[in-house]
Amino acid sequence: QVQLAESGGGLVQTGGSLRLSCLASDRTFSSYHMGWFRQAPGKEREWLAAINWSADRTLSAESGKGRFTISRDNAKNTAYLQMNSLKPEDTGVYFCAASTRWPPISWTYWGQGTQVTVSS
Length: 120
What we know:
The protein is mainly β and 120 residues long.
């Protein structure tokens, strides 16, 4: 069972950038497809982006296209979410997740989340 730990969240001003990291507990990371989600206050969890195990395929939700980029480094057991041009509506808890399927229609493992707050 792989464990996931997000980091890199924090407080940023509108228009700023953050890079979130998702560190996996072991090398089985390279066999999983990875995704990022967020949950804004009072709202349901929203899928943002996904990347396959070999990093040659990505999927992105409309809400992050052109601003959010997912990537991974299998040698470091880490997935990333680069977020640019942040807006107050991007505020929320950001989660990474791992899937054994592509396209990832279900998710097997989840991290605990990292808070992102965008001030206006």
